């Protein structure tokens, strides 16, 4: 009997350079959504990380970037910004010979820096995903440089869409704002969860009860935000009875300067992105 399904070889071979937290989230999301493990190759120097990626997802892992990129038309650069330059320099001869599209998730490192470090004129897509990608619930900002053609743009978008929606950014300078809002954003929510749990415990709740109440509340509120299509301010208004309990809490947040504090935190993250770029040179 003939097999009508398309051959797995139709999917591009993707080489991840770096197999840490972000790569794990992306790989986990891709595999859970049907990517063929044999089409994913990972370079990761840490033995334990290679072993766990191989065991958890069935992907092929290598100790060096040069081995991982063999036969890959898409490279996903997922190392720390501080080591990106040396990793790209190592791969430059292969990039020039094989002309892959290089997708970088590194905060702050610009497309011009990446293309230059890879030997010049390389198609580069800057991507800023976030760790909920692991559950297919990520959001990713994407910026293509001038060497990315229509097919590569489509291919990059489809690859990342496996782990959540994408937004294309026209002005690369805005990638630092994307990083500060959604790239780092999950950590802000986790901090809020920690604070709500601790406050609940201080009010006398057992730790596990406080954790359940805080986390399920964040889940439910996030679902309302994403599924009901109502503005956050309107949803907040509906919880807040005049002179009720929520009113007392919200007034405390407002008087304590929560909005200004969030603004300062997001500005600090965006500034740090720009510093990372400057610190790593041309
Ligand atoms: N963690 C997050 O929420 C997000 C991270 N990012 C970006 O993702 C990148 C990676 O961040 P994380 O995954 O959090 O860091 P991580 O430290 O968990 O992962 C980086 C991995 O790269 C490996 N590595 C170091 N040198 C290497 C080399 N020469 N070849 C191959 N692998 C090498 C390290 O052993 C490490 O496992 C960063 O550039 C960061 O800006 C972007 C969006 C969100
Ligand atoms: O903290 C960082 O620098 C990375 C980029 C966005 C999330 N984590």
TrEMBL record:
Could you tell me where this protein is found in the cell?
A: Cytoplasm
First-listed, main subcellular location of the protein, grouped into a coarse class:
cytoplasm
Where is each Pyrroline-5-carboxylate reductase dimerisation domain found? 172-276
UniProt pathway annotation: Amino-acid biosynthesis; L-proline biosynthesis; L-proline from L-glutamate 5-semialdehyde: step 1/1
Q: What is its EC number?
A: 1.5.1.2
The job of this chain, per UniProt, is described as:
Catalyzes the reduction of 1-pyrroline-5-carboxylate (PCA) to L-proline.
The coding gene here is: proC
Q: Which GO terms describe its biological process?
A: L-proline biosynthetic process
Molecular function (GO) terms listed? pyrroline-5-carboxylate reductase activity
Q: Give the similarity note.
A: Belongs to the pyrroline-5-carboxylate reductase family.
NADP: is it a keyword of this entry? yes
Task: Cite the source lineage.
Answer: Bacteria, Pseudomonadati, Pseudomonadota, Gammaproteobacteria, Lysobacterales
Tell me which HAMAP family the record gives.
P5C_reductase (MF_01925)
Listed InterPro entries = 6-PGluconate_DH-like_C_sf, NAD(P)-bd_dom_sf, P5C_Rdtase_cat_N, P5CR-like_CS, P5CR_dimer, Pyrroline-COOH_reductase
Name of the protein:
Pyrroline-5-carboxylate reductase
User: Where does the record place the Pyrroline-5-carboxylate reductase catalytic N-terminal domain?
Assistant: 14-108
Keyword Oxidoreductase present in the record's keywords: the answer is: yes
State the coiled-coil residue ranges: none
Quote any Pfam family the record assigns: P5CR_dimer
Provide the catalytic activity annotation: L-proline + NADP(+) = (S)-1-pyrroline-5-carboxylate + NADPH + 2 H(+); L-proline + NAD(+) = (S)-1-pyrroline-5-carboxylate + NADH + 2 H(+)
| Binding annotation for NADP(+) | 17-22, 78-81
Name the UniProt key words of this record, in alphabetical order: Amino-acid biosynthesis, Cytoplasm, NADP, Oxidoreductase, Proline biosynthesis
- What are the annotated GO cellular component locations? cytoplasm
SUPFAM superfamilies assigned to the protein according to its UniProt record, in alphabetical order: 6-phosphogluconate dehydrogenase C-terminal domain-like (SSF48179), NAD(P)-binding Rossmann-fold domains (SSF51735)
């Amino acid at each position: 009997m003939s097999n009508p399904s398309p051959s797995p070889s139709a999917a591009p071979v993707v080489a991840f350079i770096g197999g840490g937290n972000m790569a794990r989230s992306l790989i986990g999301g891709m595999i859970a959504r049907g990517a063929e493990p044999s089409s994913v190759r990972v370079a990761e120097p840490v033995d334990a990380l290679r072993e766990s990626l191989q065991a958890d997802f069935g992907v092929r892992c290598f100790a060096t970037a040069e081995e991982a990129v063999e036969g890959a038309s898409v490279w996903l650069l997922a190392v720390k910004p501080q080591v990106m330059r040396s990793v790209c320099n190592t791969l430059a001869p292969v990039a020039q010979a094989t002309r892959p599209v290089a997708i970088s998730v590194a905060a702050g490192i610009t497309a011009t820096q990446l293309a230059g470090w890879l030997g010049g004129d390389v198609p580069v897509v800057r991507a800023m995903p976030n760790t909920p990608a692991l559950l297919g619930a990520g959001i990713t900002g994407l910026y293509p440089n001038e060497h990315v053609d229509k097919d590569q743009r489509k291919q990059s978008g489809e690859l990342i869409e496996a782990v959540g929606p994408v937004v294309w950014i026209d002005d690369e300078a805005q990638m630092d704002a994307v990083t500060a809002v959604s790239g780092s954003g999950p950590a802000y929510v986790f901090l809020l969860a920690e604070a709500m749990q601790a406050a609940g415990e201080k009010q006398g709740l057992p730790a596990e009860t406080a954790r359940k109440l805080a986390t399920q509340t964040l889940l439910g509120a996030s679902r309302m935000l994403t599924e009901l299509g109502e503005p956050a301010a309107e949803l907040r208004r509906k919880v807040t009875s005049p002179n009720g309990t929520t009113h007392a809490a919200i007034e405390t947040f407002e008087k304590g300067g929560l909005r200004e504090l969030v603004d300062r935190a997001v500005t600090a993250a965006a500034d740090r992105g720009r510093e990372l770029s400057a610190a790593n040179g041309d």
